[in-house]
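Materials and Methods. Structural model of Survival protein SurE-like phosphatase/nucleotidase domain-containing protein. The 278-residue sequence of Survival protein SurE-like phosphatase/nucleotidase domain-containing protein from Stachybotrys chlorohalonatus was retrieved and submitted for structure prediction as follows.
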Amino acid sequence: MKAVLALALQALAVQAVRIVQSNDDGWAELYLRTFNDALRASGHDVIVSAPADNHCPPNSGPTGRNATRPDLNWVNSFPATSMRYGLDRFGPERWNAPADLAVSGPNYVTNLWLAVHFSGTVGAAVYAAHEAGVPAIAFSADSPAGGSQPWNLSPRPSHSLVYGELATQLVNKLVASGRPYLPDDVWLNVNFPAATGACSRASDFRWVLSRINIGLLSSPDVEWCGSERLPHEQRVFDTDGCYIPISIGDASDRSTINDVARQAIVLDKLRDILTCLP
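The predicted structure was written out as tokens:
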């Protein structure tokens, strides 16, 4: 309840935007719905367009929506296709305007480094950024509960609420930074450590700017934290202390964007929430 109230108060200072949300685990999955509730509590107009999985009526065709919540849509296909339907069809039908932002997830397992290239969660975000030209963020989490869980689980686990709150905080920060929210062909890859123990509350976590691949042969990164090489996202994730890696991705190939100018734009937008690794 406190998290929802905090997000609602934060919404007073954040411009509401049009968001298409997808994932890899299905439109009726817990993390997606918890994040969706947090985004809506912040005032954003959100369209869900996610894979159907096995949570839709039998013999119901290639697409469908919740009868009482037409903002909740499913697509009998892959995550990237679901995102495409949201951006090309479901969103414009509701808004008569394009989406401002696309988000994917949170996935119930992490998508770090090599896993990025095989992730449906990432694929949905990359489609939005590269094919549709819509700024996009992929969220994943080290779920303490194991597998994905249904949307109507009650009470909602505290870790699910923490992930939704954190993801919404980042969305709100990016929106508050002004348009364009991200440079062309850039997406963000975000992975939450398990929300347990000393990392049980959203306020326990710290954001760290990072890169997807190690970058041994890459050109220098934007200068930050006294270095011209951003830390590898796996290193950030594995560091004790509730650190969340935010990697600056190239939507053309799912690697780190090796362009200091575009990295610098993201750094400037997020600078005041970022911290350095110890």
